[in-house]
Design brief:
188 residues, alpha/beta, 5 helices, 5 strands, binds flavin mononucleotide
């Protein structure tokens, strides 16, 4: 079983990545394979509403989206991390969820039954909204989102600062554990 952690921060090795890596390490401890995928540096353009994906399982925009989509399809679990930007998910994350969401929901619902959920981080505010925003995406696509010991959020501004948020790190860890445990139960 494979769990993919997707970091939607434009900043490499930042707080989103640290929380995701922590969740993935917990999942790995439960015996599942884990991979981290960074959206940073990828050419990802917004959905242009051409609607071709309503009749064919492809997105005609020629950028880096398709390999990411295929990795998401192949995974049994998806953990999607985003920093909060102006109270919301980053543009990179929005682009990914719009395109992967529409493409999948019109082509056999391949994400249905996958396990996963969001993890968000901010300096000060916007975590609740962003967490809810991303949970809506997981739910509309039929994915199963386990809980943790708090909502999946961390506090931190500069790179590495989130490691000082002990409860945020612990919540990410427990979420990773629950993703893996649920996956194992669903597949036993
Ligand atoms: C363009 C931009 C907008 C941001 N908006 C918010 C915000 O609305 N609320 C907040 O608390 N922090 C905000 N931040 C701070 C980031 O959420 C914070 O630095 C976070 O740790 C970045 O995660 P990263 O290290 O994974 O990139 C913003 C940062 C940037 C660059």
């Amino acid at each position: 079983m494979k769990v993919i952690g997707i970091s939607g921060s434009p900043r490499k090795s930042g707080n989103t990545e640290l929380l995701l890596k922590h969740a993935l390490a917990a999942a790995k401890e439960e015996g599942v394979d884990t991979t981290l995928l960074r959206l940073s540096g990828l050419d990802l353009r917004p959905c242009n509403a051409c609607l071709i994906c309503r009749t064919e399982e492809r997105c005609p925009i020629e950028d880096d989206f398709t390999p990411v989509y295929l990795k998401m399809k192949q995974a049994d679990g998806i953990i999607l991390g985003s920093p909060v930007y102006f109270g919301s998910a980053t543009a990179l994350v929005k682009t990914l969820i719009e395109r992967a969401g529409y493409l999948s929901m019109h082509n056999g619902h391949p994400f249905k039954g996958k396990v996963g959920g969001p993890i968000v981080v901010a300096r000060r505010a916007g975590q609740n909204f962003t967490l809810a925003q991303l949970n809506f995406w997981f739910h509309i696509l039929g994915m199963v989102v386990p809980g943790s010991t708090y909502w999946n959020m961390g506090f931190g501004r500069d790179k590495g600062e989130v490691t000082g948020d002990e409860e945020g790190m612990r919540t990410a860890w427990n979420f990773g554990k629950n993703v893996a445990m649920l996956l194992k139960k669903l597949n036993s």
